[in-house]
Amino acid sequence: MINSIEVVKVGIADMNIVRAPQLIRTSGLGSCVGVVIYDQVQELAGLAHVMLPESSLAKNGDLNIAKYADTAVKELVNRLIRQGARATALKAKIAGGAQMFQFASGNDMMRIGPRNVEAVKKELLFLKIQIVAEDVGGSSGRTIEFNTNTQLLNIRTVNKGVMDI
Amino acid sequence: MTFINKISSIHLDILKEIGNIGAGHAATALSTLLNKKIDMNVPNVRILSFDEMMELAGGPDNVVASVFLRIDGEAPGSMYFILSLTQASHFIKQMTGEDGFSFDSVPYSEISVSALQELGNILSGSYLSSLSDFTNLNLYPSVPALSIDMAGAVLSHGLLELSQVSDYAIVIDTELTDQEEANCVDGHFFLLPDPDSFEIFFASLGVPAND
Lengths: 165, 211
Description:
heterodimer, A: alpha+beta, CATH 3.30.1330.200, five-stranded mixed sheet, 2 helices, globular, B: Chemotaxis protein chec, eight-stranded antiparallel sheet, 8 strands
């Protein structure tokens, strides 16, 4: 019998959780940040594709919690704990937060990538989750895939190839 | 979100016409520039989730050549001119005469990047000026920025304004086709008005926003 390993895909402003041997992937991260939080022993991992730094930026009522760094990280941790992850064992890997276009104008939205990264780090620090590895900034899009068995985050960029962190 | 819920079929028709006029002028400009026949489809106006929008450009990790510009003025928004890599290198070869050009070898030569940026500049400029004439609104395009990267990465940038109010985007999408090489060309114009701009467009054309 052939065992094909299932890859769970996470869309933009979305999140999900997988258990080994499943893989979890999100594609086309630009200024967005992909946050992976995992418990190595329980072989559980969650991935959120964060688009904006703070939920206070939301201008209407129904909030998509996976879209904002502050709410997404909290919710991801809660879901992992509900699935049996241990709060103290959680670690994180993050990637993304690039600046896709270079503009002279100082509009705040133009530096959204770095702001997303800062917001994610702030929230992880607040929840005392250690960032084991990161690949942030730059000006290239990234596709990332987390392997729950090896705890490696595979990052693919156009022109710069593939690496594991 | 309110503005999406309020939109009626007449509104969608207006947006379609906006896309039609803009892209029609841009297609003419492209045709003049390259001295060949360019076909344009009737624009599609769709209300899409962000993920669906990435699919329009071939999926989030499909690599595309995109020219992005911000529209400032009375009806702010974002605009993209997106080309497949095959098409973009085809255009570059035609404009620069650099026959050996390929996106496989980085860094790209300065002239080819500049040519592509200028192509985007001319096309989006003609799109916007006709749109501005039609609506009588002052629209000022920013200097266009070029990026050769994954569709998800480039498009999400233009969704930032919208994403603060909604999980859906109204996309005015016009496809361009090159007649001489069937099923090869794929150019897309995406016009993404900021949430507050819809009412301004409708008002400028004499249609109330809530009818």
